Amino acid sequence: MEKMNELDLLVIQYKKKKNKKILDQIFKILYPIIVAKAKYVFYVQTFNVNNCEFKLMDLKKGLELDDVIQELGLEIIEWLNKWKLAPPPFSHFLNQCLESNKWKPKFINADFIKEIKTISIYKTVENEEEEDEEVDIADSFATPEEPKIEFYPELTEIEQKVWELMQGNLNLSQQEIAEELCISQMTISRAVTNIRKKLQK
Question: CB within 10 Å: which end of the chain, N or C, has fewer?
Answer without folding.
Answer: C
